[in-house]
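Response to reviewer comment R2.3. The reviewers asked that we include at least one raw input/output pair. We reproduce the pair for Endonuclease III here without editing.
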Amino acid sequence: MTKKERFAFVLKYFEEQAPNAETELIYDNPYQLLVAVILSAQCTDKRVNMTTPAIFQAYPDVAALSHATFDDLFPLIRSISYPNNKTKHLIGMAQMVVEDFNGEIPATVDQLVKLPGVGRKTANVITSVVHQQPNMAVDTHVFRVSARIGLTTNATTPLQTEKQLLKYIPTEKVHIAHHWLILHGRYICVARSPKCEECGLRPVCKYYHSLVRGN
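Raw output as returned:
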């Protein structure tokens, strides 16, 4: 099977099984999504969704957050992983958005990565989810699932994975393919003991054929 054929099978499967896949983070606007994605680094979406309501109540917009103090914001983030750094990042992000971007959340990857706490993955999430730009955010789930299935070959970094996926996924499907791969990794192709018997991608999955079936 060629890589093109494998991609075609995977995309068709997800289109049929999860045509409306979307982020599990709860948000109402780009500001809220950016805060949630920054908090989600090495933390579950479930925990983030439990934490953000209090943050958004106290700081309803980026201007309000830009005036937050560490001592006021930290208690709201205490239950999140790396709360010290993320508290500083959120305040710094808000201040830069207000000062350098007229209070508007940037809409390009190049601008977003200038913000504290925002790396390429976060920037790709924001531009993909909010603006449906063809940017592929590669987190641990996307990285693992892509390699296991055989969508990527010898990709050792998130950027290499991103480039290989973008080569074969049609531009108009990139924004939703990001969610397909994340959700598949979160619930089926989990890190330990992947649920291969529940997976509809078995016919084309390299991991299943090489390690599970032994051929």
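The chain has twelve helices and no strands. The two ends are 14 Å apart (CA to CA). Further pairs are available on request from the corresponding author.
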